[in-house]
Specification:
Blueprint (H helix, E strand, L loop, with lengths): L1 H44 L19 H11 L1 H22 L5 E7 L17 E7 L4 H69 L5 H36 L14 H6 L9 H7 L1 H22 L4 E9 L8 E9 L7 H67 L5 H35 L13
Antiparallel strand pairs: 1-2, 2-3, 3-4
Helix pairs in contact: 3-4, 4-5, 4-8, 4-10, 8-9, 9-10
C-alpha cells in the first residue's frame, strides 16, 4: 500500500509538472499573435501607395487625324462654301467665253394701234411683227474678259487651297490639344489620388492626436481644388471636341471617336522644320500665290483699259419685218465705232488700273515681309521649345529620382508618408511640364508647315 501510494503520487505529480510549461508556452504564443495582429493592423492603416494609382486604359476610336481631314474635306461647310465660289467663278468664265460669239435676239411685237402707210400694201400694215437681231459685240474685249475670268478662276482655286491649308492647320492644333488634354486629365487624376492618400493619412494621424487639424483641413481643401481643376480640364476638352466637330462638319450631338495615339506623328509625319528656308516659304506659300494671281488679273485690266482707247469694231445684222414704220428686210454691215470725247475718262481709267496694280505689288511686298518675320519667329520658337523640352525632360528625370529616393527614405523611417506623397505629386507635375513643352514645339511646327504650303506637302496621309 505504501508503494502504491508512492507510485500514485509520482503519477499524479509528473503530468502536473509537464502541464505547467505547456500552459506558459500557449500564453506566450497568444501574446505574440496579438502583437502581430496589432502590428499588421497599424501597418495596414499607414500603408503607403508606392506607385501611382491604377488608371483605366484609354479607349481609342477610328478617327485619327488623316481620317478627320478626309471627313472635313467632304462635310465641312466652310470648305463647301469655298468650293461654291470656284463654281461661281467658273460660270463667269463660261459667260466670258460666250461673248466671243454674237448674240442673236428674236424681237416680236403685237400692235394694238399703229400708224399705217396707205401707199404700201395692206399686208405690210399687219398688227404682228417678228425680227431677228444680232446685238453688237466686241471680240477683242471678249478675249480680254476671257483671260481675266480665267485668272479669277485660278485665284479662286488657289484661295480655296489656302483656306483648306489654314483649316487643316487649325484642326491639327485642336486635335493635338485634345490629345494633350486627355493626357493631362489622366495625370491630374493621379495627383488627385495621391492627394486623397494624403488626406486619409492626415485623418488617421489626426484621430490619433498626432496631426495638426488645420493642416488636415488644408489638405482636404487642396483635394477639392484638384477635383475642380479636373472638371475644368474636362470642360475644356469637351469644348475643343465641339470645335473640332464644327470644323469637320460632324454632327454636334454624335460622339466623335478620336484616335489620338501618337498625335504629333499623325499630324507632322516626322516633319521637324530643320530643312525649311525662306525661299521654300516664298515658293510654296499659298497667300503669295493668290496675290500673284491678283497681279496677273490687274495687269490684264490695264491692258483692257488701253484697249478702250482703240476704235471698237462693230458688226450689224438685222432681219426685220413689219416694223412701226412699215419697214421690212435684212441688214448686214461692219464698221468701227470711236468715242471722240468722254472727258478723258478712259485715260484716267488707265491711270486708275495702274495705281491698283501698284497697290497689289506693295501688298505682296508687305505679305512677304510679314512671312519673313513670322518665319524667323517660328524658327526661334521651335529652337526655344526644343530647349524647354530638354529642360522639362531633365526635370522629369530629377523628379523620378527624387521620388525613388523618397521611397527608400520612407521605408527606412527617415521620411513621413505625406512628404513621400509630395514627391509623387512633384513627379506627375514634372511629366505635365514636359508634355506642355512638347505642345509648344508641335504647334510651332504646324504653323511653319502651314505657311510653307500646307501639311499635305509633308504628310502623305493628308492629300487634297
Amino acid at each position: 500500500m505504501h508503494v502504491v501510494s508512492k507510485r500514485r503520487e509520482r503519477d499524479t505529480w509528473a503530468p502536473r509538472h509537464r502541464r505547467i510549461p505547456c500552459a506558459a508556452r500557449i500564453a506566450r504564443l497568444t501574446a505574440l499573435w496579438s502583437i502581430a495582429l496589432l502590428v499588421s493592423f497599424s501597418a495596414i492603416l499607414s500603408q503607403p501607395v508606392l506607385a501611382g494609382p491604377e488608371v483605366a486604359p484609354a479607349t481609342y476610336g477610328y478617327f485619327d487625324f488623316p481620317t478627320c481631314v478626309r471627313y472635313a474635306l467632304v462635310h465641312s461647310e466652310t470648305l463647301i462654301k469655298n468650293r461654291l465660289e470656284i463654281q461661281i467663278q467658273s460660270a463667269d468664265l463660261k459667260d466670258a467665253h460666250s461673248e466671243i460669239f454674237p448674240t442673236f435676239e428674236v424681237q416680236t411685237r403685237y400692235y394694238f394701234a399703229r400708224t399705217r402707210n396707205y401707199n404700201d400694201r395692206t399686208e405690210s400694215n399687219q398688227k404682228f411683227s417678228a425680227s431677228l437681231v444680232m446685238t453688237n459685240f466686241n471680240p477683242m474685249l471678249a478675249l480680254i474678259k476671257i483671260k481675266a475670268k480665267a485668272i479669277l478662276v485660278d485665284a479662286a482655286t488657289t484661295t480655296h487651297q489656302q483656306k483648306i491649308s489654314e483649316h487643316i492647320g487649325n484642326m491639327a492644333k485642336l486635335f493635338y490639344r485634345i490629345s494633350v488634354l486627355e493626357k493631362t486629365i489622366r495625370a491630374e487624376r493621379q495627383i488627385a489620388a495621391l492627394l486623397k492618400n494624403k488626406v486619409n493619412y492626415a485623418s488617421t494621424r489626426k484621430d490619433q492626436g498626432d496631426y495638426d487639424p488645420i493642416a488636415a483641413r488644408a489638405l482636404v481643401n487642396n483635394q477639392r481644388a484638384q477635383e475642380i481643376k479636373i472638371r475644368g480640364l474636362e470642360n475644356a476638352m469637351d469644348q475643343a471636341t465641339r470645335q473640332l466637330k464644327i470644323m469637320m462638319g460632324y454632327p454636334p450631338d454624335f460622339h466623335l471617336p478620336l484616335d489620338t495615339r501618337d498625335a504629333a506623328n499623325q499630324i507632322l509625319f516626322g516633319f521637324n522644320g530643320s530643312h525649311i528656308t525662306f525661299a521654300d516659304i516664298q515658293a510654296g506659300n499659298l497667300g503669295l500665290k493668290v496675290i500673284a494671281k491678283r497681279e496677273q488679273f490687274q495687269s490684264n485690266m490695264v491692258s483692257g483699259a488701253y484697249l478702250r482707247l482703240l476704235p471698237k469694231p462693230t458688226v450689224i445684222f438685222q432681219d426685220i419685218n413689219n416694223q412701226v414704220d412699215a419697214s421690212s428686210g435684212t441688214t448686214f454691215g461692219v464698221g468701227l465705232d470711236y468715242t471722240l470725247w468722254d472727258g478723258f475718262r478712259r485715260v484716267r481709267d488707265i491711270k486708275r488700273q495702274k495705281l491698283r496694280a501698284s497697290q497689289i505689288k506693295i501688298e505682296r511686298s508687305e505679305v512677304a515681309q510679314q512671312l519673313y518675320d513670322k518665319f524667323r519667329a517660328l524658327r526661334s520658337d521651335i529652337k526655344l521649345a526644343a530647349e524647354k523640352e530638354g529642360y522639362a525632360r531633365e526635370q522629369m528625370n530629377l523628379a523620378e529620382a527624387s521620388e525613388e529616393r523618397a521611397l527608400s527614405q520612407y521605408k527606412s523611417g527617415m521620411l513621413t508618408y505625406d512628404l513621400y506623397m509630395d514627391q509623387g505629386v512633384a513627379k506627375v507635375q514634372a511629366r505635365l511640364g514636359a508634355l506642355n513643352a512638347v505642345m509648344e514645339r508641335v504647334n510651332a511646327l504646324i504653323e511653319l508647315a502651314t505657311i510653307s504650303g500646307g501639311l499635305n506637302r509633308y504628310n502623305a496621309g493628308i492629300q487634297y
